[in-house]
Specification:
It contains 4 helices and 10 strands; from the N terminus they run αβαβαββββββββα. The mean pLDDT is about 95.
Length: about 160
C-alpha cells in the first residue's frame, strides 16, 4: 500500500507482469538473482541482499536500466480475487525466465528482501497522443500492449 501511495504521489504506476518482462528484455544491466533462504524479513537480510546487488552492479554505468535484482510488486486483475493480497512477479534469471510466477499468496502487508518496487511514469504516448497509463491499462484495444491479461479493472491497489 505504501508503494501505491508513493506511485500516486509521483504520478507513477506499478507495472504489470508483461511490463516487467519487457523491462527485463530492454535492460542494459541484467544482474543474476541471488536468493537468500533464511530470515527473509530481517533487516540484516535486506542489507545483505543490497550488498550482493551493489557488488554485481559495480563498474556498470550509473543511470542504466537495471533488471534481475528483485521480484516486482505488480498490478493484475487477480487482485480482485483476494483484495487483501499483494501481487508479485519476476526476478528474472540471466536466461530471461522469471523465478517467481505471478502470485497473490502473500497478504498486502508482507514484505521481504526479495521484493522490489519499480515505479513506471504514467505519462505515455500512444500514436502521438499523450495518455495516462491507467487509461491504456483499462482500454480493451490498448491494454494488450502492456498487459497479458487484457484490460485491467484494477489499475491501483486502491481499486480493489
Amino acid at each position: 500500500m505504501t508503494a501505491q501511495r508513493l506511485a500516486d504521489l509521483w504520478d507513477c504506476s506499478l507495472p504489470t507482469a508483461r511490463m516487467v518482462d519487457d523491462i527485463y528484455r530492454q535492460a542494459t544491466v541484467k544482474l543474476e538473482p541471488r536468493p537468500l533462504t533464511e530470515a527473509r524479513e530481517a533487516t540484516a537480510t535486506f542489507q545483505q541482499h543490497h550488498r550482493i546487488i551493489e557488488v554485481q552492479r559495480a563498474g556498470k554505468t550509473l543511470g542504466a536500466l537495471v533488471a534481475g535484482i528483485k521480484k516486482d510488486v505488480v498490478l493484475t486483475n487477480r487482485l480482485r480475487e483476494k483484495p487483501a493480497k499483494v501481487a508479485i512477479y519476476g526476478w528474472h534469471q540471466l536466461n530471461g525466465s522469471p523465478i517467481q510466477p505471478l502470485t497473490i499468496v502473500h497478504k498486502e502487508s508482507y514484505v521481504d528482501y526479495s521484493h522490489g518496487i519499480r515505479l513506471v511514469k504514467r505519462d505515455v504516448v500512444v500514436d502521438g497522443k499523450a495518455m495516462d497509463l491507467r487509461d491504456v491499462l483499462r482500454d480493451p484495444e490498448l491494454a494488450p500492449v502492456v498487459n497479458d491479461e487484457g484490460p485491467l479493472t484494477c489499475v491501483s491497489y486502491f481499486d480493489r
